[in-house]
Amino acid sequence: MSSGRAFKFGNDISTDHIVPGRLAHLRSNLPELAKHVMEDADPKFASRVKPGDFIVAGSNFGLGSSREHAPLVIKMAGVKALLAKSVARIFFRNAINLGLPILICDTDRIEDGDELEVDLKAGVVKDVTRGITLTFGKLPDVMVKILAEGGLLNYIKKHGDLEL
Length: 164
Prior knowledge:
Layout: E1 2-8, H1 15-18, H2 30-34, H3 45-48, E2 54-57, H4 69-76, E3 81-84, H5 89-98, E4 102-104, E5 115-119, E6 124-127, E7 132-135, H6 141-148, H7 152-159
Parallel strand pairs: 1-2, 2-3, 3-4
Antiparallel strand pairs: 1-5, 5-6, 6-7
Helix pairs in contact: 4-5
């Protein structure tokens, strides 16, 4: 079980909102790039987010170019998981492969700053602030195993192969 604050964003948050193209020169310095994560959606996000917090979004999160470093710098900033109504398919795959859980659920009732508790195994999000419980469905076992190891590369290094 993980707990942290919700940072709420709207619909259609693109990879350019997550990692602005003007900062492409920082791709070889990911810790520096992480200091600018979500800057074009919320200029203060990187300075306010704490390890264990959550990004909560509407529909179509992560649309746009296939920037693998977009979910990586979200994770590096301390975000424990991303909750959204829907995410772009390539962003979803990149995030899981990098060890960032993507939880698809109805995020309408979660507000910015709410305290959340997330149980990946049970498929449950508790909004402690509002006293509501949401479900995101059971993650496939292979995804849970990848996430438990911190991403696909870590999983392969430890187990030698991915058994489906």
